Amino acid sequence: MGLTTVEIFIPQSQSLKDKRQVLRRIKDKVKAKLNVSYAEVDYQDKWQRSTLSFVTVANKRADVDRRFESVIKIIEGDIRVEILNRDREYL
To answer: Total domain count for the chain?
Structure first.
């Protein structure tokens, strides 16, 4: 079981609505491609920042790592987003 947390910056966002559109697109891509759960865990009231947490369960740590690397690639693939920080824990 693993948890990865990603803090992101959305420089072009001008409102919470703009931010929600960006986050929705990221979450939809992650949901469609990977077996992970996710939530926005910080900066809900800020329109240019967010912290997203993703959790997954697998038999092997390598499978957890592979899923989280895919999550990071999805986020990095969105040109509207900059990753400020990321952290990973194994439970």
So the answer is: 1
